[in-house]
């Protein structure tokens, strides 16, 4: 190496500048190729180019404040962390179509458990995200090229002046593009698009700190306002529906159907039914064909939370992880007071989604998890135990349990990336859209259907079928927006925000042996299951903070709110993404004004629910109720 070049490589500012260019280039590459940011105009394009600069300068510049001896190490650590944050988002986005939030990151010890999914989510080209790290490492580690990172105070001041300058330009352009961006935070894609991926994480960290402080500052007055709202909603319901108490004293079985969307029901592929058993079961049950999932980032766990509490999951992270020690008034606890035995069966580790902790909080007495099952290479795939052996092995455990029980079975095989590892599992040919996830999805749904058939057979064999009611629900979507092209091929139409919202329908089948069912068209969601189940069992919870209503009640409004703020009624679909309003009967977009009251109600209700969870407000309910009961007791003496 000639002397000049060597000297150049030894210069701190050359190293620093190269690192900035590398990190900027790969961040820009990710913003352009890995995420769908919907760049609408030149200003947004310009913002995209400059957003990474201020944060890169800011964070890498922090190394200036370390002693010269430690400076290179500090610099590389920061560089590595930023690369990791970027790459983690790229991988996470491939499946979740969303950006990581701090609460989600903390629960992603789950990242490790993703196993098969993580493999399918990494691509060979991802090497581009790490090549620069290797180059810089070699650069600092080789004695010959090691840069001397010594900077004058004036240089450091200039770097930070540049940080401020870029940030100011970025923020003011962002404000022009999206007024109140920082106040209305529900749309993470917008935050990343206008603030950049690193600034987004700074913002997210501040939000996390802010929300954890909300519990500390919450007081019981907030609860009064929310109770008034909830009671006025419930008051509209009038007297009990005609199914009140119809399943009194029966066992309740809940089955969570992993990633199962409603579009597979009654649909044929290659001339074959995808869900033959569920289709037959639906004919003999109450089958709700306008039922939506209301979940957010917490996925399966959000669905579980919604169903047991009739409260919404959170806008960021999974409530199962962030608020597992709150006070709740959940179905298992209520049923326990009514003589029931609440239990859960699931073939994954007990700590996934923090279930082991949350189940205790919610009042489950027993959780049969992976440790209780016999799991081998043959009988497992993807996340673990396959659904058929899962149900088979669960039976002897169920048979030992005291009746009546409230038993939840969580299936797992139909999980992204929808893998089979044995020809016997493939009971239908894959679809042929060319999008592997979509094509395989039909096979794993078909397998799941077979497992449910098996489960019903076993329940009949053990004699418990006729004393049990069955509630089967799809937990959340399985096919994300990233697969719209293939999905439009399957459905034979374009996927506009209207169709996207409708695709959030999941099946709900309530099967009550001995009772003739029917198709139910009321618009509802997972939020409504707690009051629905309690009413079937003849249990009336007075003064409970719940946002759902009994799906069997004649007076209920056809209405459900999705976690992103979208709303569906019998007449309209409001798509929060893009603020679009549609008339359901014509499927045409209409003026946004028409949906404004729906949007307002959705925002209010989601905000109330978030207040309850963040503020842990139900703890006040308990103490107030206790005080009242104590007083009454005192008076009766
Ligand atoms: C894991 C299973 C899947 O135990 O419930 O969780 P998901 O990724 O669908 O939330
Ligand atoms: Mn799930």
Automatic annotation (TrEMBL):
<feature type="domain" description="Sulfatase N-terminal">
    <location>
        <begin position="250"/>
        <end position="539"/>
    </location>
</feature>
<keyword id="KW-0812">Transmembrane</keyword>
<feature type="transmembrane region" description="Helical">
    <location>
        <begin position="155"/>
        <end position="174"/>
    </location>
</feature>
<keyword id="KW-1133">Transmembrane helix</keyword>
<dbReference type="InterPro" id="IPR000917">
    <property type="entry name" value="Sulfatase_N"/>
</dbReference>
<comment type="similarity">
    <text>Belongs to the LTA synthase family.</text>
</comment>
<keyword id="KW-0472">Membrane</keyword>
<dbReference type="InterPro" id="IPR012160">
    <property type="entry name" value="LtaS-like"/>
</dbReference>
<feature type="transmembrane region" description="Helical">
    <location>
        <begin position="78"/>
        <end position="96"/>
    </location>
</feature>
<dbReference type="InterPro" id="IPR050448">
    <property type="entry name" value="OpgB/LTA_synthase_biosynth"/>
</dbReference>
<dbReference type="InterPro" id="IPR017850">
    <property type="entry name" value="Alkaline_phosphatase_core_sf"/>
</dbReference>
<keyword id="KW-1003">Cell membrane</keyword>
<feature type="transmembrane region" description="Helical">
    <location>
        <begin position="127"/>
        <end position="143"/>
    </location>
</feature>
<feature type="transmembrane region" description="Helical">
    <location>
        <begin position="43"/>
        <end position="66"/>
    </location>
</feature>
<feature type="transmembrane region" description="Helical">
    <location>
        <begin position="12"/>
        <end position="31"/>
    </location>
</feature>
<protein>
    <submittedName>
        <fullName>LTA synthase family protein</fullName>
    </submittedName>
</protein>
<dbReference type="Pfam" id="PF00884">
    <property type="entry name" value="Sulfatase"/>
</dbReference>
């Amino acid at each position: 190496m000639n002397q000049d070049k060597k000297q150049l490589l030894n210069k701190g500012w050359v190293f620093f500048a190269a690192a900035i260019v590398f990190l900027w280039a790969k961040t820009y590459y990710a913003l352009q190729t890995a995420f769908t940011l919907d760049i609408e105009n030149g200003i947004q394009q310009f913002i995209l180019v400059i957003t990474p600069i201020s944060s890169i300068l800011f964070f890498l510049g922090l190394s200036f404040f370390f002693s010269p001896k430690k400076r290179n190490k500090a610099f590389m650590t920061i560089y590595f962390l930023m690369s990791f944050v970027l790459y983690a988002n790229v991988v996470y986005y491939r499946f979740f179509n969303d950006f990581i939030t701090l609460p989600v990151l903390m629960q992603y010890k789950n990242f490790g458990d993703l196993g098969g999914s993580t493999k399918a989510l990494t691509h060979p080209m991802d090497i581009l995200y790490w090549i620069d790290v290797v180059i810089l490492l070699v650069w600092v580690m080789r004695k010959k090229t090691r840069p001397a990172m010594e900077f004058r105070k004036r240089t450091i001041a200039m770097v930070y002046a540049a940080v401020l300058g870029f940030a100011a330009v970025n923020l003011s352009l962002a404000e022009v593009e999206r007024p109140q961006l920082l106040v209305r935070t529900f749309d993470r894609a917008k935050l990343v698009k206008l603030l950049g991926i690193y600034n987004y994480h700074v913002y997210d960290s501040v939000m996390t700190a802010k929300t954890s402080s909300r519990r500390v500052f919450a007081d019981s007055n907030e609860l009064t306002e929310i109770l008034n709202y909830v009671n006025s909603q419930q008051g509209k319901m009038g007297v009990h529906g005609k199914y009140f108490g119809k399943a009194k004293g029966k066992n309740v079985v809940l089955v969570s159907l992993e990633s199962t969307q409603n579009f597979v029901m009654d649909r044929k592929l290659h001339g074959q039914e995808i869900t033959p058993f569920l289709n037959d079961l639906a004919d003999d049950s109450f089958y709700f064909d306008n039922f939506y999932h209301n979940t957010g980032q917490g996925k399966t766990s959000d669905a579980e939370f919604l169903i047991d509490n009739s409260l919404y999951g959170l806008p960021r992270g999974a409530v199962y992880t962030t608020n597992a020690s709150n006070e709740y008034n959940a179905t298992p606890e209520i049923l326990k007071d009514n003589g029931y035995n609440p239990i859960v069966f699931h073939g994954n580790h007990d700590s996934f989604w923090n279930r082991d902790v949350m189940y205790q909080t919610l009042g489950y007495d027993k959780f049969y998890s992976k440790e209780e099952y016999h799991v081998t290479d043959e009988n497992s795939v993807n996340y673990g135990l396959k659904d058929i052996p899962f149900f088979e092995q669960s039976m002897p455990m169920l048979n030992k349990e005291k009746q009546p029980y409230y038993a939840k079975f969580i299936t797992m095989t139909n999980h992204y990336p929808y893998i089979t590892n044995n020809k016997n599992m493939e009971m239908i040919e894959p679809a042929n859209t060319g999008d592997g996830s979509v094509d395989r999805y039909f096979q794993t749904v078909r397998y799941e259907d077979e497992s449910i058939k098996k489960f019903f057979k076993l329940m009949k064999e053990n004699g418990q079928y006729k004393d049990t009611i069955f509630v089967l629900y799809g937990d959340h979507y399985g096919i994300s927006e990233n697969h719209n092209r293939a999905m439009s091929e399957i459905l034979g139409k374009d996927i506009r925000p209207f169709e996207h919202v409708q695709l959030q329908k999941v099946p709900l089948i309530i099967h009550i042996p001995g009772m003739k069912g029917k198709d139910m068209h009321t618009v509802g969601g997972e939020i409504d299951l707690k009051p629905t189940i309690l009413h079937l069992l003849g249990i009336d919870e007075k003064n409970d903070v719940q946002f759902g209503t009994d799906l069997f009640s004649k007076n209920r409004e056809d209405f459900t709110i999705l976690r992103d703020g979208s709303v569906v009624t019998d007449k309209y679909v409001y798509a929060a993404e893009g603020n679009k309003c549609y008339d359901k009967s014509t499927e045409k977009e209409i003026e946004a004004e028409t949906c404004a009251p729906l949007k307002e109600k959705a925002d209010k209700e989601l905000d109330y629910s978030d207040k309850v969870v963040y503020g842990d407000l139900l703890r006040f309910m308990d103490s107030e109720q206790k005080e009242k009961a104590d007083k009454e007791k005192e008076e009766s003496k």
